[in-house]
Amino acid sequence: MELEKETGRSRTAVLKRFGFRKETQECRMSLVSHLEEFRKRLVACIICFFAAVLICLGQAAWLTERLMEKAQGFQFVYIAPTELVLSYVRLALTGGVSLACPVMLYQIWGFIRPGLTRRERQSCFVILTFGMLLFLIGAAFAFEIVLPITLLFFAGMNAGQTISPMVSIESYISFVSTTLVTFGIVFELPVVVIMFTRIGLLNPAMLRKNRKYVILAVFVLAAFITPPDVTSQILVAFPMLFLFEISLLLSRILFRKRLKREMQVNGQEAGDV
């Protein structure tokens, strides 16, 4: 008897968390339908992910060849019997996440969309789309520009030496994956600034105040990952500085809109009084 009462209280608490005041048949059906939709979308994400992994696994050898073409002057080896196979699997998992990511985001969007207001839907859609696009641009920038320059610099350090640059394929794929993901995340700076400005954690004054430190950090990073010539450093640093300036501009626009909206709300409250 006590167990049944405790179960009833727990069920009522769960329903209240979903916005239901009273436990009715309609409430229970609505909660069940939400859980069923969540299950279907989760299954769709899992199926899509494994399908993408299988596709990438079938092309793993070709993908590895394309990655090795970026590393001129290096010789690649695998030092364990299973290393090459595990490298293919790792590459397939990374590629599977990349290919399935749009579908996963679509499923997440489809699940949360009905519970959002019109304005929240617009904001979330813009942030998700803009964020995914910036991540792809950052990864492409790293693959086409940063990676060749960095690898050429590391290979050139061995000029005239007796040590041969032999790299295990597993460590190379790990290095490439880390570089692509890192620059993809760095290129998310405008999205982060937009979100923090909207919730009041950032404002244009804070960004302007720290601009000189950002510029210094960008050029230090560019000097670290590129050969010691000005052209390569500027080639890497300029896109990141451009992203920061775009972030500052977006922060200024959003901050002004937020101030204007707060002034309107305060004016309405003063009028009501």
Features:
273 residues; mainly alpha; two-stranded parallel ribbon; 10 helices; 2 strands; 81% helix; flat; membrane; translocation; cell membrane; protein transport
Structure description:
Helices cover 81% and strands 2% of the residues. A two-stranded parallel sheet has the order 1-2. The chain contains ten helices and two strands. With 273 residues, the chain is mainly alpha-helical. Helix 2 (25-58) packs antiparallel against helix 4 (83-112) and helix 9 (211-225) runs antiparallel to helix 10. It has helices at residues 2-17, 25-58, 60-69, 83-112, 118-156, 169-186, 189-198, 204-209, 211-225, 230-272, and strands spanning 75-77, 166-168. Forms a complex with TatA. It is a multi-pass membrane protein.
- The total of beta strands comes to 2
Radius of gyration: 26 Å
Low-confidence stretches: 2-7, 17-23
Tell me the β content: under 5%
Q: What is the typical, i.e. mean, pLDDT?
A: 78
The secondary structure category is mainly alpha
Distance between the termini: 54 Å
Count up the helices: 10
How would you sum up this structure in a few lines?
The protein is an all-alpha fold. Helix content is 81%, strand content 2%. It has one domain (28-155, 163-259).
Reconstruct the topology from this structure:
Blueprint: H1 2-17, H2 25-58, H3 60-69, E1 75-77, H4 83-112, H5 118-156, E2 166-168, H6 169-186, H7 189-198, H8 204-209, H9 211-225, H10 230-272
Parallel strand pairs: 1-2
